[in-house]
Amino acid sequence: MPNGTPYHSFALPYPIRVDNFTSTIDDLPAPYNRPALHLLTHTHTDHIAGLASKSFAYRVVCSPDAKEMLLRHEVYAERSLHDHEYRADKKRTFGHLKIEPYVMPNGDKFYTGSRDLLHAVPLNTPTEFDISDDETVTITLIDANHCPGAVMFLIEGSRGSVLHTGDLRAEPWFLSSITRNPFLQPYLADSAEDLRVFVARREGTHAEATGLVRTLEAIYLDTACLLSPVVVPSKEHAVQGLVELVALFPSSTYFFINSWTWGYEDVLKGIARAFHCKIHFDRYKHSIYTHVSDPFLRAIGTRDASSTRFHACERFDRCSFVDVPPYDFGAKGATAPPSKDGMRVVYVNAATISCARWENYKATVKRQVLTGETVDSLLVPLSRHSPLPELMNLVSLFRPKRVIPNTLDPSVNGLDWGAMARMFAGCLSSSKPRSAFASVTAPPCPLTSHPSITTLPGPIGLSSRVDLGHILDTSE
DNA sequence: GCGATCAGAT
DNA sequence: CACATCTGATCGC
C-alpha cells in the first residue's frame, strides 16, 4: 500500500504486515521493524510495493490465483518488447520469488538457492501460521469481489480476531455471501447482539463467554471510495445494462472493452455469455486469464483477433480490428484507420455512475442509437470498490470494536480518519445495536462538521499507542 | 551506475 | 472514465 496506511500497514494487534513489502520500516522500533508474516490481498500495483525488490526474501501468504498472477506478472514495457519480438524471453517481474531447484543433466536436483516464497492458501480454508516460537494465528482467505485472486484475510489468535478486507466490492450479493460464510458467522453482530441479551437473560451468562459469538477487534477497511456517498449499480446490473446497449448496434459493429487493469472480468464474461462470442485478448492477458481458477474466465478468451468483434487486447497496442480513431488512448499517433467498409468500433469504458444517472444514461444512448446518431463510446458503471453506503452496510454486519482505513491521504493529516471514525461510530460494537441495513437510509455523517483536532484518531493519536502498542510487544 | 521510492499526470 | 499505472525525478548505496 502506498504511504498513508495506518500502522505502517500492520494488521494490529498482530505483527502481520499486509500489502506492503518495502524495507522502509527497518529503522522503526520493534516490533514494527520485523513483520512476523506478510500477507498479499491481490496483485494490483499499489499493493505489491517492495515485492519486486530482489532483496525481498520473506514468506508471503496469498491466494492461489494471486500467486499465479504474480509469477506471470509482466510490466507493460516488457510485454511490448516481447510481443514485438525484440526480446525472446519474458522477463517476469517477480521471478525472484520462486526459483526452481537446479537440475543436473542426470536428473539430480539441488535446492541450494531455490525458493518458493509465495505461500498460496486456498479460500475458505483456515490455516495456521507461526508468528513466533510460541504463538500461532489462524488465517482464512475469503473472496473480496475485487479482481481475480483478491481476498480478505480473517486473522484469529490469542490477541483477538481482525478482518482485513484488502480492496473489495461489498455489493448486496456479497453481503449475503458473508452472512452465509461459516467462518465469518461467529462475528456477525445482529444475531449476536440479540443472542447476547437473550442468553444473558435466560441463562445468566454472557454470550461472549460461550465463545460462540465474538466481536472483531477491528476491520481494516477498503477506503478507496470512502468519500463517495452515491449508491452505484451492482456489477450484475451494470453488465446487464451494457449488454442491452451493445445489442442495439448492428452485428457488424466491433467493440473495444478497455479492461486497463484486473477487475473488469464481469464485463468480459457478461459480453461473452450474452453474445456467445469469445473475447480477443493480448498475449499477456490471455496468459493470465488461462491460468486462474475461474473456469469460465479461462474459457472466454481467444488469441485470434479475426475471430470475434469483441476485443480486450492491449490498451496501448490494440489489434487492427479495433485500432480506429477517433479514440486513441494516447499510445499512438494519428494512424490511418483500416478502411473496411462500414466498419465501426465502439469503445467501452468503466466509470463511476450512480444508479439514477445510469438509468438516465442508458435511455439517452438508446435514443441516440435508435435515431441513427453516431455513438462510438459506451460507459459501464462497474465499480471495483465499495462507496460509503456499501461500506457502512458491511461494517454494520459485524459491529467490530473499531474500523481502520486501509489507506489515508497523508496530505490531510488525519482529517480523513477523523471523518471516518465519525461516519462509522454508529456501526461499532460500542454503539446501540440497530438493523444492519439501517444505514442504507441513514445519511452519513456530514463532512462539514469537523471533529476537534484533539480528538482526531490517527496513526499516532488514537488508541494505537495505548492498547495496541503493548499488545504488539512480543518481548515477554 | 543501478535500484528503490516518490510525485505527478493520465 | 479511472484510485491503478506509467513516467521521470530524486535519493541513496
TrEMBL record:
GO terms for cellular component: nucleus. GO terms for biological process: DNA recombination; double-strand break repair via nonhomologous end joining; interstrand cross-link repair; telomere maintenance. Its main location: nucleus. The keyword Coiled coil does not apply. Transmembrane segments: none annotated. It is found in: Nucleus. Residues 302-407 form the DNA repair metallo-beta-lactamase domain. Keywords: DNA damage, DNA recombination, DNA repair, Endonuclease, Exonuclease, Hydrolase, Nuclease, Nucleus. One of its GO terms (molecular function) is endonuclease activity. Belongs to the DNA repair metallo-beta-lactamase (DRMBL) family. This is Protein artemis. It comes from Hydnomerulius pinastri MD-312. The lineage of its organism: Eukaryota, Fungi, Dikarya, Basidiomycota, Agaricomycotina.
